[in-house]
Design a protein that fits this description.
- By secondary structure, this protein is of the alpha+beta class.
- It contains 11 helices and 12 strands.
- The protein has helices at residues 3-23, 37-50, 60-70, 81-84, 114-122, 154-159, 188-196, 220-223, 227-248, 256-274, 279-285, and strands at residues 26-31, 54-56, 105-109, 126-128, 140-142, 145-146, 164-167, 170-173, 177-180, 202-204, 207-213, 216-218.
- The strands form 4 sheets. Strands 2-3-1-11-12 form a 5-stranded antiparallel sheet, sandwiched between helices. A 3-stranded antiparallel sheet has the order 6-8-7. Strands 4-10 form a two-stranded antiparallel ribbon.
- The chain is flat, with a radius of gyration of 33 Å.
Length: 330
């Protein structure tokens, strides 16, 4: 590629990033180590076809240059001032991305939920052989069993202190052997052994490292949560806040509905014991809004039963009383 072509490509990437940081409020920093160009192309096509975003891949120095230009208002001296001036708006904390640009990475711009586009980005993984010097991402062990290799190669297994025997004219491993340890480099002997056994122990694909959203950096612990996880955490916290509020007598949006229901139960209990009547209690007795008649409503058809005492309930989870939809809005 000629020098002019390189400059034109660099300029094109910078302007693409400049425009993307105006159009999109979210970008994903994606790890591309050991990812083939074919995998990147497939992800680009999938993003384009689903209309959920697009990917930019370039040198980290070029991306940093684009971020630096986008972080300040363009001046008339800049080469593409006329293009950038209409696109410029203040973007907060854009410089936070700069420190994350290490190694081989790509940037995906999308306003879709990370949960929705993650399968597109991380779903395309391919098996890969262990290479000398690479860091093993996982532990790799070879299970006991026949290897398909002839006895003449038994010395290779002995050099690795592997437990073997000759069975039916081939080498058989008699005890599980750990070849690679996660986080450690793969040695020459380990790589050759896995190659001889035709084992490709690793899988490589794109991985989302960070998510930048409206000036905030989100870690995997946050953006990997699905909607059900978020809802469960919210419910758990809301339940605890309601319980604490009820215990301390603090009125708020979470505790007031329970306070009203608990007090109503107390009033209903007193009314049933003293024979007092009021409209809401009558609605309960007749099944409320469209509800099935209760035992009290069927008193003329069945033998009268002595009203049971309604216990006072102070828990934040009211149940067993039909209030005719009074508190549906809570």
């Amino acid at each position: 590629m000629s020098e002019s072509s390189k400059r034109a490509k660099k300029r094109r990437i910078i302007n693409t990033l400049y425009e993307a940081f105006t159009k999109y409020k979210q970008c994903l920093i994606v790890k591309l180590e050991n990812v083939s160009s074919n995998q990147v192309q497939q992800a680009r096509v999938a993003l384009r076809q689903s209309k959920q975003g697009f990917m930019v891949v370039g040198k980290n120095t070029v991306i940093k240059k684009a971020i630096a230009l986008r972080s300040k208002e363009p001046t008339e001296e800049e080469q593409d001032y006329d293009l950038r001036k209409p696109l410029y708006t203040e973007v907060k904390n854009l410089d936070k991305i700069t420190g994350l640009l290490k190694g081989k990475i790509g940037i995906i711009f999308s306003d879709a939920a990370v949960f929705d586009i993650k399968p597109i980005i991380e779903g395309n993984k391919k098996p890969a052989a262990a290479k000398v010097g690479m860091v093993a991402p996982i532990d790799v062990s070879i299970p006991p069993g026949p290897t398909g290799m002839d006895p003449s190669q038994i010395s290779f297994f002995h050099a690795l202190n592997m437990s073997t025997k000759i069975q039916k004219g081939q080498i058989e491993i008699t005890k599980e052997f750990k070849v690679c340890t996660a986080g450690k480099k793969v040695g020459n002997s380990e790589a050759v052994l896995l190659q001889k056994l035709n084992i490709k122990p690793f899988q490589y694909g794109m991985e989302i490292l960070w998510v930048w959203e409206n000036g905030t950096l989100l870690t995997p612990e946050i953006f990997n949560m699905n909607p059900n996880d978020i809802l469960a955490k919210f419910r758990n916290v809301a339940s605890k806040v309601a319980a604490i509020s009820l215990a301390t007598g603090q009125a708020n949006a979470l505790s007031v509905p329970h306070m009203i229901i608990n007090q109503f139960k107390n009033i209903a209990s007193i009314a049933l014991q003293t024979g007092l009547k009021f409209k809401l209690l009558e609605n309960m007795s007749t099944g409320g809004a469209g509800g099935a008649p209760t035992t009290a409503a069927k008193g003329k058809e069945t033998k009268e039963e002595k009203p049971k005492e309604v216990a006072k309930v102070d828990e934040p989870e009211p149940a067993g009383v039909d209030l005719g939809g009074m508190f549906d809005d809570f």
